[in-house]
Amino acid sequence: MNLHGRLSETAGDASTYAGHSSGYARRVLFGRAGGSVHQEAVIAELESGGSVDRHLHAFEEAFYVVDGSLVLEVAGAVERLGADDYAFVDRGVAHALRNDSDAAVRWFEVAAPQPGATLEDTVFVTDHALPEGLERPYWRDHFDPAELPAPSNAILAGFDAANVDGAALKILVGPATGASQLILMLVQYVPGGFITTHDHAFEEGFYFLEGELEAELAGETHTLRAGDYCWSGVGDSHALINRSDRIVRWLETQVPQPPPRYQARFTAEWERFLAKP
């Protein structure tokens, strides 16, 4: 199962934190309604002067600010996040959001395990102690394109130039930042960069920030540009290639976190294996 869409054509919802927020709205890119069983990803927005009251979740969250300025109050700290800043908030850690700038702020947000189970998984609180045993209740940092390695075929262990090349990535949120449920990474392909048809034992989601990419999703070809998104379910085949003359850059989620081995199964390799006597 897979899906693709365009942010400008995706309906917004201002009811998620009704009664506990002002000026807040979100557009769900992929989640339960689209077939995902492990994650929910949204583009959220706070108007100037908007806020979301202090709350905590029964899931992990990662944020990446697309544009504007977001104030995150968490674990006794006040973090001001601007464009290309990102943050991780662990399960059960109370946090509040506000926008004290004179323009709206938008951010990409992914949550896992998937919100919306039968139990109440978001609770608004006036104050709350940190869960016991947490070494790192939250993490924040800034993405700089200069941090990306040179484009190559070495984006993940075991990949070679026959299956992927011209690619670079940086893991923003993952085990090293305290996350146990999700991966959030920034991926970039130079012109001609590609990955051949493959599938995974985990879900992948994509939100495009810059440039243009040709994506093959379950045998159908789509051209995706900045502001577009797509998602592939477990075992769903997909391939990506940058046929343009400029870089393409996107945010990518992987949920659950990939295993240390066998992160991808490439169709051509497997077909050659099956053809052997």
* Strand element count: 20
Largest beta-sheet details: 10 strands, antiparallel
Low-confidence stretches: none
CATH homologous superfamily identity of the largest domain? Jelly Rolls
Just give the CATH class of the largest domain. Answer: Mainly Beta
What's the shape? globular
Secondary-structure element pattern, one letter each: EEEEEEEEEEEEEEEEEEEEH
Helix fraction by DSSP (H/I, runs of at least 4): under 10%
Number of helices: 1
What percent strand? over 45%
CATH architecture of the largest domain: Sandwich
Average pLDDT figure: 94
The secondary-structure class comes to: mainly beta
What's the assembly state of these chains? single chain
User: How many separate structural domains?
Assistant: 2
Spatial extent as radius of gyration: 19 Å
The CATH topology of the largest domain is: Jelly Rolls
Distance between the termini: 32 Å
Tell me what the structure shows.
This protein is mostly beta strands and 277 residues long. It has two domains: 2-142, Jelly Rolls (Sandwich), CATH 2.60.120; 145-275, Jelly Rolls, CATH 2.60.120.10. 3% of the residues lie in helices and 51% in strands. The chain contains one helix and 20 strands. The chain has one helix spanning 267-275, and strands at residues 2-6, 21-30, 40-57, 60-67, 70-74, 77-81, 85-89, 95-98, 105-112, 122-124, 138-142, 164-173, 183-199, 203-210, 212-217, 220-225, 228-232, 238-241, 248-255, 265-266. Strands 1, 12, 13, 14, 15, 16, 17, 18, 19 and 20 form a ten-stranded antiparallel sheet that branches. Strands 2, 3, 4, 5, 6, 7, 8, 9, 10 and 11 form a ten-stranded antiparallel sheet that branches. The chain is globular. It starts with a strand and ends with a helix. The model has no long low-confidence stretch (mean pLDDT 94).
